[in-house]
Amino acid sequence: MLQIDVVVLAAGMGKRMRSTLPKVLHPLAGKPILSHVLDTARALSPAKICVIYGHGGELVRQTVGNDPDLIWVKQAQQLGTGHAVKQALPCLRKNGITLVLFGDVPLVKSNTLKSLVDKACEDNLALLTVELNNPAGYGRIIRDPQTNRVQAIVEERDALPSQKRIHEINTGIMVLPNMYLESWLDRLSNANTQGEYYLTDIIAMAVNDGVRIETSSPASDWEVVGVNDKIQLSDLERTHQQDVARKLMEQGVTFADPARFDVRGQLVCGNNVEIDVNCIFEGNVRLGDNVKISANCILRNVAISDGSIVHPFSMIEDTEIGENCRVGPYARIRPGTQLADAVHVGNFVEIKNSHIASGSKVNHLSYIGDTEMGRRVNIGAGTITCNYDGAFKYQTIIEDDVFIGSDSQLIAPVTVTKGSTIGAGSTITRDTPEGQLTLSRIKQISIANWKRPEKNKD
Ligand code: UD1
Ligand code: CA
């Protein structure tokens, strides 16, 4: 493949989104639309990527990131797609080829772009076109009836009725030969119904200059659909998610319903993974073999090893989970947590920034924060590590084979030594001796002849 320059047109304001957020910053699968386009462009290892921005410019730059491979060029007034590409001219190499992408067409695949680029060379031009059942609104591809070669693109609003019947449309994505660009773009006129400098007018110029026009098509039509309003955005979101689900199913993942599933980042699955409905995967999530994720779970930057099960309504962030663990239902596992193998975390348990070694159980209604927990520990219901004094955080160490009775508070910093048993209802403020029962509890008393207060009966 020839090395390309990329120009991304992203200056339009996207009025129909009815939002103060610039159109290209609206998220699809948790990532700005424009970032999808840039990441796809990067997969082609371009010499440079020139982004034409306008509306909400600074915010767009900040959000998408000022990576060194991006050149930002402002188009102060949106005078048309041809005018937009012209702004990029100073950044383009004198020879070579330039791929034009739209910042609001997020789902185009890098393979589709690769085949298009493969059709281009330094002195021809390649257009990505598709045949649509309903071509309304798009520029039409005009071909010579004899040779079938492309002659021109006519915008819908400038098209003759006979041209409007053409189903082959311009996706807007094209590869242009740099050496002709300046002369073509300089000759564009805005004498058309929209008063814009149309990039599409360079096609007829190219034909005049004897430049060959090649075409190719995407594997799926939805790759070239643009986002103009919230309805199209939600349609594309579902299309994308079902595409992700389909790929995972091809790899053997079982979904209760692939239409109720969202990945906002990357999900990598081992063999025989099962995912129930309404789960959201954010950032980088890796699931090992035989992992089951039950309904309504949210996992963000999580790695789960073979055989572990996450029960319904659990939320897990920045966490590593070993093999054969049980988590949830209703577990909240916060950043910095590592569960080793065969750890059980039950309902209404919150764990933060803690390491829990193999075979330990925190099964009910507990808060474990900033804790180093050994193996085979049993934490009774309602146990709290009191890790915060209002200013500083402190660590709790719970060594191997400890048993903590229900409703205990461990006031950090504190160490519960190997084999300790803590009596239920204790408040532990000092390190406990190994192997002993420690408890801090008021002695139980009973008061004879005590009477409950009673209301006057008369
Ligand atoms: C364009 C094509 C049309 C094609 C359609 C595909 C032209 C003249 N027409 O029409 O043939 O079928 O896309 O969707 O090219 N933009 C700028 N600066 C501008 C104008 C536009 O950056 O001055 C950007 C927009 O933000 C958008 C893209 O270019 O990302 C396309 O512009 P838009 O106005 O949507 O073009 P269409 O009229 O849809
Ligand atoms: Ca458009």
Question: Key features?
Answer:
37 strands; 2 domains; twelve-stranded parallel beta sheet; 8 helices; eleven-stranded parallel beta sheet; binds calcium ion; alpha/beta; binds uridine-diphosphate-N-acetylglucosamine; Spore Coat Polysaccharide Biosynthesis Protein SpsA, Chain A; UDP N-Acetylglucosamine Acyltransferase, domain 1; 458 residues; 33% strand
Outline the structure in words:
- The protein has 458 residues and is an alpha/beta fold.
- The protein folds into 2 domains: 4-224, Spore Coat Polysaccharide Biosynthesis Protein SpsA, Chain A; 230-438, Hexapeptide repeat proteins (UDP N-Acetylglucosamine Acyltransferase, domain 1), CATH 2.160.10.
- Helix content is 17%, strand content 33%.
- It is built from 8 helices and 37 strands.
- Strands 13, 15, 17, 19, 21, 22, 24, 25, 27, 28, 31 and 34 form a 12-stranded parallel β-sheet that branches. The protein has an 11-stranded parallel β-sheet with strand order 12-14-16-18-20-23-26-29-32-35-37, covered by helices on one side.
- Strand 8 and strand 9 (150-154) form a beta hairpin.
- Helix 3 packs across helix 6 (178-186).
- It is elongated.
- The termini are far apart.
- It binds uridine-diphosphate-N-acetylglucosamine and calcium ion.
- Residues 9-12, 52, 75, 78-81, 83-84, 102-104, 138-139, 153, 155, 169-172, 198-200, 226 line the site of uridine-diphosphate-N-acetylglucosamine.
- Its main location: cytoplasm.
- Its EC number is 2.7.7.23, 2.3.1.157.
- GO terms for molecular function: glucosamine-1-phosphate N-acetyltransferase activity; magnesium ion binding; UDP-N-acetylglucosamine diphosphorylase activity.
- Its cofactor is Mg(2+).
